[in-house]
Structures are given as structure tokens and as C-alpha cells.
Amino acid sequence: MKILFVASEAYPFIKTGGLGDVAYALPKALRKMGIDARVIIPKYSGIPLSFRNCMETVASFTVPVGWRSQYCGLQHLTYDEIPYYFIDNEYYFERPEIYGCYDDGERYSYFSKAILESIKYMGDFVPDIIHCNDWHCGIVPALLKDNYKDDEMYSKIKSVFTIHNLKYQGVFPKEILGELLNLNYGYNSDDALKFYDAVSFMKGGIVFADAVTTVSETYAKEIQTPFYGEGLDGLLRSQSDKLYGIVNGIDYELYDPKVDKKILYNYDYETRKQKTKNKLKLQCELCFTVNEDIPMIGIVTRLVKQKGLDLIVEKLQELLSLPIQIVLLGNGDEYYEDIFKYYASIYPSRISTNIIFDEVLAQKIYAASDMFLMPSLFEPCGIGQLIALKYGSIPIVRETGGLKDTITPYNKYTGTGNGFSFTNYSSDDLLEAIDRALDLYKDKDSWNKLVRNAMNSNNSWENSAENYMDLYSNLID
Ligand code: GLC
Prior knowledge:
Distance between the termini: 12 Å
Strand content: 15-25%
CATH class of the largest domain: Alpha Beta
Largest sheet: 9 strands, mixed
CATH topology of the largest domain: Rossmann fold
Number of domains: 2
Structural class: alpha/beta
CATH architecture of the largest domain: 3-Layer(aba) Sandwich
CATH superfamily of the largest domain: Glycogen Phosphorylase B
Number of strands: 18
Strand order of the largest sheet: 3-4-5-2-1-6-7-11-12
Low-confidence stretches: none
Radius of gyration: 23 Å
Number of helices: 20
Helix content: 25-40%
Bound molecules: alpha-D-glucopyranose
Mean pLDDT: 97
């Protein structure tokens, strides 16, 4: 089975969020199952030189973008036994930023077209399935069914489209159809790409892919409702027979406190005394009171509304009057950055605000903290809570999307569960969940039981990769 996995980012080359992790770990898991999975992403200038210098050019050709022909270099390297392809075009991708350019519509139209042209130059690798991810390549299934429908080589290729976050949709003026995509204006219709007075790449993926997946079962249900549907819930309900939820995993070769080189003291459940050493060390580094009995709460996240930060902000003053320590890491909206910076300046021994994207500090926080806060407004899957589990930092989450599917509330009578959760998007309910956690923390036996459950939770990629494999097989049949 041959799968071409298409994404706008992939670890270890370039990563802004969970999609980058998935674009590494899922193809890796698929390859372990004997599938020839390969990944293709743009060759951004942000990819470290150490990688750029190792890329080999496979072919150079031109790609039709409206009436113009644009250069495309197809480059290649193998990392961790996964073949990666890169689309090289300096005009589109030699820029300091990855996303958020004025011409993103054009950049990802070009990228989508370049992917499909690239297949001609991949030797005997003609994919059975093109697996597209998020809006950046949502238009690929439409182009495949239109521009390439008469080409025998492409006629058997099926497409899967995975929604990692429905909020970001790639909506552009309808003129993009003729001017860039070489699609006729018939595509500006309700049953195709039309989205209000524009066209939507996300909609392209949903309508034209042979199967649509999203990254948890709960999110697959939620996006069929108006609250989570981002204006596409009606469409998703109408396509529900080809919509599947497959939860993400994490790669335990990257995220395992027993071997993680980013943390000072490695540990597993049996040697969790070493976890405490990580906590004492971080307390010292952050100029907090050094005391292992003070519960430490970690928050590692992009600072955006989706992550439920408003609930935390509403109760921050109250939280900081409790005997706890909060360590926050992440960047994003200035609004949240400023609020957390403000509180850190007033309560420097209670909250540490780190406005950066720092993978080493992130791992130190997972390893040091006792609890991990993730009260998201919505969460397609979430990766932070999965890493936290493995590092024995107990997730406190809102029951939405993948958080609901991976965190089971602790039941003190049966001793089951791996975290704390609440249902309504309410800061009172969040505070209550934190109180429950702080209460249990005082009862060391019960807390240890909970930590053991958390660290034993299995969220490896194997199960999910099998689900993808079943889906691919059904489509190919
Ligand atoms: C997006 C979602 C996140 C998910 C990730 C990978 O970043 O917001 O919930 O875990 O994609 O699928």
C-alpha cells in the first residue's frame, strides 16, 4: 500500500503545532506496519540548514498556476526511515513566516498543484491514497477529480482528508478558481467550494475527498453541531457517512520520561522520586519556594482562545491566593501574553510566565509539574494532555473533543481514571475541578494511584495507525 501524506508542516523540519507531530508520527507508525508512507511538505526557509543541505533534487518542472507557469523543484531526504519530499519554490516559501502571508491562497494553491504534478516524478511510487491534512491541501481532492480526471495514472488514486482544526478554513475570493486553480466557475456552487460569497479550501477537502477523518471521535460528532461546526456543520452532517473520528497518539520514542534527554532526571512510575527532583530543580530555576509539597500546575499551550484561557484568566486572582505554583509556557495572542505577564510581575513566587516556544522548557514543565491544565473551548485531539499523562502530570481538562476521549475522571471509590474533568465552559466548574485535584493531592496514596493510572495510559500510535490502515484498505477495495 502506498500513501502520500500531504501537510503544511512536519516534525522535525518545521512545526508550529500538533499537525507537525502527526505528520511525523503517523507515517512512521504506518511504515512500521509495512505501508510505504511518504510525506510531502513545502521547503520553507525556516527548515534548518542541516536538513536543507542533505536534500537531493529529484526533478525540476513547472506547475500551471492560472495563466502562469511556476517553477517547482522536487527535493527529497529520508529521516528516521521515512521518505520526505519537499516542494522548492523560493518565491512562495523563502519567507520568515510559514502562515499568515497576504498571498496564502496563492501559496497553498501552488503547493496543492505542485504535489499532484510531483507524482509524475516519484518513480514507481504512484500513491494509492493521497492523505491531505487541513485546509492548506484541502483543494487537492478537488483538483485530483477535475484537472487530472482524464489521466490514467491518477484515475485510481483515492483521497483522504483529515481535519485537525475546523476553525482555520482557507477562505478566499472566488476569483481564485480561474486565476490560480484552473477550475471552472461551476465550482462556485453550494455542493462544491462556495462558502458564502467566497470559496473554501476546507470545504473542498470535505466535499471531494473519498473519506474525511478528524482527530477524535468526539470532535467528529461535535463538528456536526452549530456550536463547533464553524459554519460547516450542515455540510458535515450531510457527509456523515464518510466522516470518521480517529484519535491521535503520541510517539513514545520522543515522549518518554525514562529516556527524554531534555529533562535532568529520567524516571518512570517506579522511580518517580526522580520526578520530584525535576520539580525541585525547576522551582529553583524559577525562583519559586523550593518545596516538594507545593502542588505545581503546568500550562503549555498556544495562547489562543481555543485553549480555554479565558476560564483561567477569570479565576487567576483566586488561584494565585492558593498555595500552588503555576508555570506557563507558550506564545500567541498579545492579549493573553500581557495578562499572564502582568500576574507574573505581581506574584513572582506563584506564577512564572514564559512567552516563548521552547521545547526543552516544555519537557521540563511536563516532568516537574503535578498537574496539567487544559480547559479548552474546543480541542480536536490535543497532544499536551497525552504527553502530561506519560510524564505523570495529571491533566485537568474540559470534556471536549480528544480531551474527552483520552481523559477519564478519577473515581475515588474504584480508583480508576487518569485525570480531572468538567463539562460546561464555566470558570466556576474549572475551579471546582482544580479544587478536587488539590484535595486529592493531599492524600498521597490516592494521588500515587492516579499517577500510576496516568503513566500507564496507552496512547501510542499503533491502534490509530491500524484504524487508518483499515480505512485506506476499504477505499482501495
Ligand atoms: C490541531 C488541534 C489539536 C490536535 C492537532 C493535531 O492543532 O488544535 O487539538 O491535537 O491539530 O491533530
